[in-house]
Amino acid sequence: MNRNACGSYVAVGDSLSEGLGDFTFHHDRHHNGWTDRLAAILAREARDKGLEFRYANLSIRGANLEKIVRVQIPQAIRLRPSLVTVMAGSNDLLGSRENRENLRKTLRQGLIELQESGCDVVVANTINPIHLRVFRPLRQRAKEFSMMIGEVASELDIPLIDVHGIADFEHLMYWAEDMVHFSGHGHIAVANQAAALLELRYRYPELDPLELSLISRGIVETFQWLVRDVVPFVQRRLKGITAGDRMLPKHMNLEHYSPELTHPNWELIPR
């Protein structure tokens, strides 16, 4: 991987790559999420070298692995970027285990197509739902799915962002109100891990978990969560629809990306 010559970057994936849960996402999809944050680091490094940088984000909430590979990866290839990140699988955790081998083949084929197009590829594995006891039945599925993604990445010699292994994600402060998307702190943690994997110079400042405000999960908060987030999710699954149906990606084409000009709170520090 040519880590020092990334002139363009495309993110593909689901809601986690789209940026749901970041500090200001509820106001504006743009300049939110670990992928947008990674793009900002790449843009800063490119600027330091006197190079131009362009970015696109094709991720859509609710997208499963098959849709990401079938729809988003061909779109990414047509843009001819230097780098593509792939985060897929979280929307497949509730699916049948019997379909796991088909998903492995689908993921492998999609990653091969990206490699054959000439771009560098980085893959992220799935979340580890250790922050709520109610998610305990999903933990083994998440572990198995992440192992599958890791095995495919290893077979193809593709670097892996180990989201599943981020220990701080046991703390509620790293999760948004819906408890399934990263909070701003979580998106920062993933962006910094991606930057370290790519051997980039800049990072976002991170607070120690002990410095973050504790989040209450009492009876009232749990009831509000069920009504606000769980019930609508179940209703969508029963209807066979997703929250991202009929939505367009937030950055469909490669465009010049300098978020520090419009998002001054995105402080970057050299390491």
Task: Compose a concise summary of this entry.
With 271 residues, this protein is of the alpha/beta class. It has helices spanning 15-18, 34-48, 65-79, 100-116, 136-155, 184-197, 219-239, and strands spanning 8-13, 54-57, 83-87, 120-124, 160-161, 202-203, 251-256, 269-270. Helix content is 39%, strand content 12%.
Give descriptors for this structure:
single chain; 271 residues; alpha/beta; Rossmann fold; six-stranded mixed sheet; two-stranded antiparallel ribbon; 7 helices; 39% helix; globular
Low-confidence stretches: none
Tell me what the CATH architecture is.
3-Layer(aba) Sandwich
Structural class by sheet pairing and helices: alpha/beta
Query: How many alpha or pi helices?
Result: 7
Tell me the domain tally. Answer: 1
Instruction: Outline the biggest β-sheet.
Output: 6 strands, mixed
| CATH homologous superfamily assignment | SGNH hydrolase
Helix percent band:
25-40%
Cα distance spanning the termini: 21 Å
CATH fold label: Rossmann fold
Strand order of the largest sheet: 5-4-3-1-2-7
Q: How do the SSEs run, as a string of H and E?
A: EHHEHEHEHEHEHEE
Global Rg: 18 Å
How much strand?
A: 5-15%
- Give the beta-strand count: 8
Instruction: Give average pLDDT, whole number.
Output: 91
Query: Which geometry do the CA atoms define?
Result: globular
Tell me, what is the CATH class?
Alpha Beta
